[in-house]
Specification:
Elements (H helix, E strand, L loop, with lengths): L2 E8 L9 E6 L3 H6 L3 E9 L3 H11 L13 H22 L6 E9 L5 E7 L3 E6 L2 E4 L22 E7 L5 E5 L1 H4 L4 H9 L4 H18 L8 E8 L13
Antiparallel strand pairs: 1-10, 2-3, 3-4, 4-5, 5-8, 6-7, 6-9, 9-10
């Protein structure tokens, strides 16, 4: 089964920096050599050095593909990578006097056989799967726990949860930060994910809708908007845009 992906990210209106970060381990040499599948991750930074924390976290996840094969299982690899991400986040916060800076994280690991996936999340960076025509939220909202240290990387050791995903032909996964998830309605999301869109176009449409709604409302969203879309199966022709896998 083929896998394709695409992304779009824009900073909040009036902001000079984008504190969101995303990274995909797909066909890089280290990924091909490891033969462990693929990994997709989105981090939502916040605080004075939130941007630096988010990128440090994603770079630390490289460890997943670098662990010696004799010591590797997907579970142990993801735990080790998450531990490295926490240490990287703490280092940035402490060195840059970032106070309560940190980031939430959602990542999706896809097995080499492309028949199963695993979501691992710290905090409430949103993720959904459209499986056989039905939309399923993969991350529970935890906005009432945002001051809890374990809900972000960079403070106390993170409290992560995971959710297995069974994949079928035509399934679509979306990971999105608050600038999208707090603005775009789930029925709109479901309708878009059900369309035969290239993932790059799907991500662009989600971010475009979020941006248009906040521009047209009384208040601009305080959040950067990022969407990462993954399609399993035949990939439609791209309509246009950047960040093509």
């Amino acid at each position: 089964m083929d896998v394709s992906w695409g992304s779009r990210s824009v900073r909040a209106r009036g902001s000079t920096t984008n504190e969101d970060a995303l990274k995909v381990w797909f066909d890089q040499p280290v990924v091909r050599r490891a033969g462990r599948g693929t990994l997709f991750a989105v981090a939502d930074g916040e605080g004075p050095v939130g941007r630096q924390v988010a990128w440090a976290v994603l770079d630390a996840l490289d460890l997943f593909f670098e662990i010696p094969s004799a010591d590797f299982t997907p579970g142990s690899g993801l735990r080790a990578a998450l531990g490295a991400a926490h240490e990287a986040a703490r280092s940035v916060v402490l060195q840059d006097h970032g106070g309560t800076s940190g980031c939430t994280l959602s990542m999706v690991y896809v097995t080499p056989a492309i028949d199963r996936a695993l979501l691992v999340a710290v905090g409430d960076t949103a993720a959904w799967v459209q499986h056989r025509g039905r939309l399923h939220a993969l991350v529970r909202p935890t906005s009432d726990q945002r001051d809890t240290a374990g809900s972000r990387l960079g403070l106390a050791y993170p409290s992560a949860f995971n959710r297995p995903i069974k994949l079928s032909l035509g399934d679509v996964i979306v990971i999105a930060t608050r600038g999208v998830s707090t603005v775009v309605r789930e029925d709109t999301l479901a309708d878009l994910m059900d369309l035969p869109l290239h993932p790059t176009d799907l991500a662009a449409d989600l971010v475009g809708i979020a941006s248009a709604q906040t521009r047209g409302g009384q208040h601009a969203s305080p959040f950067d908007a990022t969407a990462l879309a993954i399609r399993f199966g035949p990939c439609p022709v791209i309509r246009g845009g950047d960040d093509l896998a």
